[in-house]
Design goal:
The complex is a heterotrimer of chains A (243), B (237) and C (280). By secondary structure, chain A is mainly alpha-helical. In chain A, 78% of the residues lie in helices and 0% in strands. Chain B is mostly helical and 237 residues long. In chain B, helix 1 crosses helix 11, helix 3 packs across helix 7 and helix 4 crosses helix 7. Chain B starts with a helix and ends in a 16-residue tail after the last helix.
Chain lengths: 243, 237, 280
Amino acid sequence: MDGLVAYFTLIGFGPTGWGVPLLRAATMTVAVSLAAFGVGIVFGVFGCWAKLSKSVVAQSAAAVYTTVLRGVPDLLVIYLLYFGGSQAIGAIARTFGHQGFFGLNGFVVGMMAVGIISGAYQTEVLRGAYLAIPKGELEAARVASMGRLLMLRRIIAPQTLRFALPGMGNVWQLILKESALISVVGLIEIMNQTRLAVGRTGAAFSFYITGAILFLVITTFSGAAFRRAEAWAMRGMAGRVRQ
Amino acid sequence: MTRLAFLWDTFLQLLAGVPVTLSLVAVSVALGGLLALALTGIRRASRLGEWAVSAYVFALRGSPLLIQIFLIYYGFGQIGWIRSSFLWPFLREPWWCAITALALNTAAYQAEVLRGGLNAVPKGAVEAARVCGMGRAMAFRRIVLPIAIRQALPAYTSEVVIMVKATSLASIITLFEITGIAHSIVSETFRAFEVLSIAGLIYLAINFTLTRAFRRLEIRLTPQSRGRPTDRPVSKA
Amino acid sequence: MSKLARLAIAVVAVLPLAAAPALAKEWTTIKVATEAAFPPFNSATPDGKVVGFEPDLLVEICSRAKLTCETVIQEWKGIIPGLLAGKYDAIMSGMSVTPKRQEVIDFSIPYTNSPSTYAVLKGSPLIAALGEPKRVMLPEEAAAKASTAADAKALAGKLLAVQTATIQADFAKTYMPDVKTRVYETTQEEDLDLKAGRIDAIFASASSLVATLEQSNGEIVLAGPKYYGGLLGIGSAFGIQKDQPELKAKLDAAIASCIADGTVKRLAEKWFHVDTTPRP
């Protein structure tokens, strides 16, 4: 009982509690994950387009992108972008006549790194979803003399999204967990905050288990949101509705 | 030292970490596989078992491996009864802590992969086995499991690749595998970008070899599909 | 013109502006990196503030150097690569001036200096084995050799903890190559493992061990000789990029003034409970 009281004092909202910083860190985890999800979709759309294009160059570039990003540990990718990224951007900035260094903050680096990593998975999800569109629908659209853009907007994009949603849900979960690695570039998200708290209080078990629970709560709520989105996207398709 | 000599020297030093990385992968995937089989058994045994395994899978898949490693290494190290139990000789060592965390984690994913494979076993195959007079256990061992494993192989391949990548986190609890050695070279030379790039290439080579080997295995285990081109991506999302 | 093309042009046009020019000559604002996990030098409070000897001193130094200082938290092992990559302008994180580091970065003059020594659990046989807390100067080779050889003998078969990329890690590698060491990311993780019984001793800066001892409620104590100089460096200083004489001059002058009027001594006594003012 005393143990429980001590635990809740530690993670609570009292003057010595870590409740507020932990909640702030959880918000940061969600924010950086959402941003990374957006970046990942952009990379995924380009990757998917390249993989499906007839250009050999685009195809091989996309193949290299997905193979490398899914074959190298994410921790290394984050470090490489962190240390290499600002050198590259610094070089770009200098070509515009700008002197000095161009530092990126932890949020931007984390968002880009996790976004680029998840983009490799998103590429495959979108490609699979596109290939799942029944050929007949595309033919019908063409017969109805839809232009390419109209077809993209009316048929391809909504249908791809519908088939991609379950896969995108998995990528979202992956991003959430991946965001813990951004702690190494100084962003104060859940992982970093618990590590700082352990450093200050020495209560390793209490804080690491709290961090894990925070992640589980976020996973649960966002998982439920994705299932609702799926149900919505699948509405009117009797028998294909999941859940 | 010239740049090229430095890169070569770094490469050789990092190679020393390859056996550590590979042994972490092999031992944790094997232990995790056994645990996944056990979890599958429990899941099929009763409603309570089904519920407990789902909770396990949820907790392990829903939180980052990094936090699980910290919890097992530093968190469990604080608990008195664990320190005085038979587990301590193992959990005292960073290597076994890494193995424990990696195995518990991959077991949750492998249990899901197995479940997918089992769901894909055609009902007819089981019925045919029963008609031939096989008992439940024998039908499971001879018919269901082999079909399930073959079905699950692509997903299994990507799980192993993910585990190879995951071992890089072991560097955080003082282990000197590829990433750990890379960081110590960076701390000597401060040339983060070059050193980490070479480490990345080594991981890429390991994963490339593994996926190739697994695809060969897949083709061998699926004789009916021989001669048909496969259009599966190198590893599955 | 399509919307996309207009957007692209807008981005390209704004990019150089967004990269607010870091003035090379006239330093008015600097970003300073800290580990924020090396008490009592620096550590983070629950509300995200960095506190300790260095943040206190930084306020003084920045006001005397007429600089606006912004603190950046950076994991220790990436702190020099981060400076080299231009993530920030200076490092103030209990980092000692050593010849190896001077190959890649420059330093201000040191603002604190403390020896390196051992910490063990109360009642450990190592307290007796490591001997008296005598001062050992590494440049005095004969004395240094005798003392480290004795330490190595005491630590045979034991496990010694050092923090990654530190002078103490270098020390263990150089003077006691046969002693088994384990390399940690942060000092707090060393403390946790010493209490858990995974390791037998920590070798670290005496100033940082002040926090270890305080937090352990008497469970952890100091042991053995205190080592100074040589590859342990001449004290902690700001690390800055090479060839930034203006910044170095500003920092040096401010540090010298803080040492001269006793500010360093006052803050050292507040945080380390001893005067660690570096002596030339």
